[in-house]
Amino acid sequence: MPDSPNPRSRRAREAERQRAEAAAVEAAYERARRRRAAIGIGVVAAVVIAVVIAVYAATNRKTTTASTTTTTARPTTTVAANTVPLPTVAPGAALAGVPPCPAADGSSPRTTEFAEPPPMCLDLAQQYEVAIQTSAGTIKASLDTTQFPQAANLFAFLAGYHYYDGLPISRIVPAAYAEVDNPVNGGGRPGPGFSIPNEAASRGPVLSPLTIALVPEANGTVGGAFLMGLAGQFAQIPANAPQVGMILDDRVDPNQPEPEPNVRQAVNKAATPSGGPSQVVTVERITVTPR
After folding, report:
1. Helix, strand or coil for residue 179?
2. In the predicted model, what is the mean pLDDT of the chain?
3. For residue 121, what is the domain's CATH number?
4. Distance between CA atoms of residues 278 and 219, nearest Å
5. Which H, E and C letters describe 33-49, residue by residue?
6. Which structural domain, as residue segments, surrounds residue 5?
7. Distance, CA of 46 to CA of 40 (rounded, Å)
8. Does residue 85 form part of some domain?
9. Is the predicted pLDDT of residue 39 greater than 70, yes or no?
10. Is 60 exceeded by the pLDDT of residue 60?
């Protein structure tokens, strides 16, 4: 008769089976818990990423809006207020060689380019008067040939060739001075084609706010550009600007006694802090005649 199974062995096998089932259940539970944790982390990460993206988008929209506003506003901040475009004046004729003195009757053709500086065309023993006709009225002045004769001669020479005719006043410093620049010659360069040494000292006060002077260049020369004093702040005129004249009378209506509006006041009304004129004022003609 065969031996009967050992009850203790059966109990051991049953206990082992139950432990295996419990371990499997525990493992399944752990896997499920990890999956839930991973899903939770993923959801949190997705929410965080969504929040970051939303914040970035909002910030970027604000930055873009601000940048767009700045870009739109930039032209209005860089363009000087109360300024107008200045007219361009066509160049005149060109002269080769040593130029002759301009005709005394003013009949010389308009010339804006010269191959060489002019000869002395003034009689330094003679007194001269200057009439600067502008679109705002006429300025009468005396020509000063004593302090800086070469500068005075250059100014009269260019005026006699109608060099300044039609040029706008290009800069107006409030209560200080007005400046007339050189025209552009046929070669596309500003200036008469030459320059002369600046006779003025490098320091020293300008004598009067009614000064007419040539504009000094940084290289110690002067060309055709000139300036006129407008008011008492004549100290702003460069100290080394050679004086060529003195304003005597610039009343808008010379038949009326002082105090009457004058051309300097009319020009000064077009001044702006930047120096760019708010109105176009042109030089129509400058004549220099013996007194």
Report:
1. strand
2. 78
3. 2.40.100.10
4. 31
5. HHHHHHHHHHHHHHHHH
6. 1-79
7. 10
8. no
9. no
10. no
- Alpha helix (H) ranges present in 79-214? 149-160
Q: Which amino acid is at 247?
A: I
Q: What is the pLDDT of residues 225-255, one digit of tens each?
A: 999 998 866 557 888 999 999 999 888 776 7
- Its pTM stands at 0.70
- Indicate the number of domains in the chain: 2
pLDDT band at 209 (very low <50, low <70, confident <90, very high): confident
Q: Are residues 67 and 122 in the same domain?
A: no
Strand partners, 178: 172, 228
Same domain for 72 and 100 = no
CA distance 284 to 248: 19
Residue 52: both structure tokens together = 């970051």
CA atoms within 13 A on the CB side of 173: 16
Residues 61 and 118 in one domain: no
Helix (H) or strand (E) holding 11: helix 7-78
Within 10 angstroms of residue 290's Cβ, the number of other Cβ atoms is 11
Q: Find the Cα–Cα–Cα–Cα dihedral 19, 25, 26, 29, rounded to 10°.
A: 180
Residues across the chain: 291
